[in-house]
Here is the input.
Amino acid sequence: MKVGFIGVGTMGRHMAANLMKSGFSRVGHDVHKEPANAHVKDGAAWAETPKAVPEASDVVLTSLPGPLELEAVALGEQGILAGMSAGKVYFDLSTNSPTVVRRIEGVFRGRGVHMLDAPVSGGPRGAQSGKLAIWVGGDEAIFGKCKAVLDGFSDQAYYVGAIGAGSVAKLVHNCAGYIMQTALAEVFTMGVKAGVDPLVIWKAVRQGAGGRRRTFDGLADQFLPGKFDPPSFALRLAHKDVTLATQLAKEVKVPMRLANLTLEEMTEALNRGWAERDSRVAMLLQEERAGVTIEVPESAIKDVLDAEKKA
Here is the structure.
């Protein structure tokens, strides 16, 4: 099965590389050719346009920034649909709008082409290691037929439901995470201002009911050490994810007070010029409001984690 891959950026470059390691021949394209040079050097064929990718592939995968890019790449004059023939399959791996995905899928279906939404979760590290969840929406039989392709770069490909269901699951997952991050910033600054050392609080709450589920482990990456550069996942991308989730909530008439508050926090952080910093940088706004600075030495955090492993 020949696989086409469009979008070899933060996530896509790792997924595409793992596909090749899994033995799939690959045809690639990106709006910028330079990021794809490493894949071409490893044996991937280069396509000059998105249209040329399905012309040379059985299955096409895209990893794109969002809805606007998806629409342009999928339906543009030199887009994917223009190069697809009946029976071929297209998976979009992007975090996207379920409404946009469903509309585009309807166009593909009208041409006898299969489209499934298949957003991934695991971040750049997961994309590199292959420890990725993929939530798939679309024709279940087609999912089963092509699952081996998804297994070539992930370890948890899961069928969620009809087209758009994968995107809904991804927005639920991501938006919940960013809401939690906002709440954690609030309660931690309260604890620090009340006179308790942040490392002590972190060690303490990790032993509670929520902590035993490792809810707080993510704080060790950027928030506790106060380091938001270079980003693990850029604020501008996280802002897009929460925007999509709140848009979906409006469409289905579900109130999302904390999600909207979280979006406001992230928008304020964007307006500080922090778009390319790590998404957790929005937590600094709460530090400012509380009048505290949280900055734990990375060595102290490592000591806590190492001691736990030994135990």
User: Anything to note?
Assistant: The CA atoms of residues 171 and 241 lie 7 Å apart.
